[in-house]
Design brief:
The chain is an alpha+beta fold and 571 residues long. The chain has 18 helices and 23 strands. α10 packs across α15 and α12 (452-466) packs antiparallel against α13.
């Protein structure tokens, strides 16, 4: 036996030696590269012809280093820590409860949040802000003004505001603790369906969904609609708790796997569910990402919910933060997550970039089929594909232009200031007389835009000119252009219904704030209507969840298209 042990010992010793050599080589490369980086920084700092901002220089270098990985791995310096916490961890800060925007070098109120100091002091959307505590705001940036508005709870703050043609007036407010909720709307919609709009997965989001669900259950709802549209995600553990509200105890929700084995975890439900039986629909779109995809994917894989909307974003990466010296931190992608069927929804392959550095999507050949609990086929590498796909309509160019140039915003401000009586956002409809007033309001204002037809016509002229053939078609070109111009003048009437929709939404927000926006839009919401319809049809509901008929395969019939994101209209 000893004759066989010696070679084994030699091989084992050689393996250890190779491993140690490799480890030492890695340490040498790390030390070498850090030394080079420090030496470059030192020489530039000492010898560069002009003074440099050393903190900015180092951050630029670190950002460039991380840029080649993925957009979620990032360095956060001390100066940006508070903003980071506000966006990724907590929803709490000291302020007045209003958001602002910069327009023509002037600061305006863009939104007011119900129940906070700004709303209580009758600060309104569209008010121009001239001073904060006697500090002139002319020439200041959004960030600078935002910092002036924020501060300790209980501190008095004075705002000099101008509204329409009125003389400027002072509003005295007391700063309060502003907590933006994760759940921004809870209520009953058509056919006694409960509706929860979850905007983010930050601290306490699972408890907020729990509270919303308890409140809805008092109305004995026929089903629950969880709206995750445009929810970019947040804390993974909160997503697991939310799934647990609808799924039995000791069920796997998600697992994460990475290079470091210590960071591999499996997350199971740990509690008795609050509502395991009511019909459940989850709404998603192309901006539903990360934790939203964990919730939607887990509930789909477990055949607990129907997913309705458009294909989700496709972010299957997990980040962890690590504290660095001097109160800075780095957020690093440490793993990929996998929903119960075993699929990962990550769409973009950051590891295998093209030679020019651009990111590629997962190849069709690398996409795999998985099975839900009831045996339905689902696929990885492409976000969460809905059980019921709803094509998202685009607004016409004229509607987009009226919104982007703030004519809809300004008219809503004018409407609120000339119509003081409250409105019910759910039933509010802009009358034909009101729409005529809006078109009159637009007279003399510049809302020019190019239609797709005009862009194609312009392209035709460019190419024909290059080929020296334009002179031969100029008469026809001019005639067609004139017809297009005439037709375009009718766009305000041709697209009246969708323009009315955005006007009603904006006007409703002036009276009902964020809640008013949602309620005004309910009657136009196709995904919401489909959710209500689906939960009413028990046969269809059962067919989808059991994988019967056309619902056995999710996304497969149009998978080649889905891989190209052609089915998403919000990219």
């Amino acid at each position: 036996m000893s004759r066989h042990r010696k070679p084994a010992l030699y091989i084992g010793g050689l393996a250890i030696a190779v491993s140690l050599w490799s480890f030492q080589d890695d340490l040498f490369q790390i030390s070498k590269n850090l030394d080079v980086f420090a030496s470059v920084y030192k020489e530039v700092n000492i010898n560069y012809v002009d003074d440099i901002n050393s903190a900015k220089l180092v951050k630029t270098g670190v950002d460039a280093m991380l840029e080649g990985l993925d957009p979620y791995t990032e360095f956060v310096p001390e100066s940006e820590i508070e903003d980071y916490k506000l966006h990724y961890v907590s929803t709490q800060y000291g302020g007045i409860g209003a958001s602002i925007f910069l327009r023509d070098n002037k600061i305006y109120i863009s939104d007011v949040f119900a129940g906070f100091p700004a709303q209580k002091a009758d600060v309104r959307q569209g008010d121009q802000m001239l001073k904060i505590n006697d500090i002139e705001l002319a020439g200041k940036t959004n960030d600078q003004v935002s910092q002036l508005l924020k501060g300790s709870k209980g501190a008095v703050i004075k705002l000099l505001l101008k509204r329409d043609a009125d003389a400027p007036g002072v509003k005295t407010l007391t700063r309060d603790e502003i907590k933006q909720p994760n759940v921004v709307y809870t209520g009953m919609v058509a056919n006694n369906m409960g509706y929860i709009k979850l905007n983010k997965f930050l601290e306490n989001s699972a408890q907020e969904v729990t509270d919303a669900l308890i409140a809805l259950k008092k109305n004995n709802p026929n089903g629950i609609i969880l709206d995750l549209r445009s929810n970019g995600g947040g804390i993974l553990q909160e997503a697991v708790k939310i799934v647990n509200l609808f799924v039995q105890k000791d069920v796997q929700v998600v697992s994460q796997r990475g290079k470091v084995k210590e960071k591999n975890f499996t997350y199971n439900t740990v509690s008795t569910p609050l509502e395991p039986n009511l019909p459940l629909v989850v709404l998603v779109n192309s901006r539903s990402a990360s934790a939203s995809e964990i919730v939607a994917g887990a509930l789909q894989d477990l055949d607990r919910a129907i997913i309705i909307g458009q294909r989700s974003y496709g972010k299957g990466l997990v980040q962890q933060t690590f504290n660095l010296p001097y109160n800075s931190l780095v957020k690093v992608t440490v793993a990929k997550y996998f929903v119960p069927s075993g699929r990962c929804v990550q769409e973009l392959d950051y590891t295998h970039r093209k030679d020019d550095g651009s990111v590629i999507k997962m190849a069709d050949s690398s996409i795999h089929e998985f099975k839900t609990r009831n045996g339905r086929s689902v696929y990885d590498g492409s976000g969460i594909y809905p059980d019921i796909f709803i094509k998202q309509d685009r607004f016409a160019n004229i509607t987009q232009t009226l919104v982007s140039k703030l004519f809809v915003f300004d008219y809503a401000t004018k409407y609120r200031n000339t119509h003081p009586q409250p409105i019910d956002p759910k039933s509010f409809t802009l009358t034909d007389e009101g729409y005529a007033d809006f078109t009159k309001y637009l007279e003399g204002k510049n809302y020019t835009y190019n239609t797709i037809s005009e862009k194609m016509l312009s392209s035709l002229k460019t190419e024909a000119t290059k080929e020296k053939q334009f002179s031969g078609i100029q008469a026809e070109y001019d005639a067609l252009k004139a017809k297009m111009t005439t037709s375009k003048k009718n766009d305000l009437q041709l697209h009246k219904e969708e323009i009315k929709q955005v006007l009603e939404n904006e006007i409703a927000s002036r009276y009902g704030y964020e809640k008013g926006r949602y309620e005004a839009n309910f009657k136009y919401d196709k995904e919401l209507a489909e959710a209500v319809k689906t939960m009413q049809d028990k046969t269809q509901l059962a067919s989808i969840l059991k994988g019967v008929g056309d619902y056995k395969t999710i996304g497969k019939p149009v998978f080649a298209m889905a891989g190209k994101k052609e089915d998403n209209d919000n990219d």
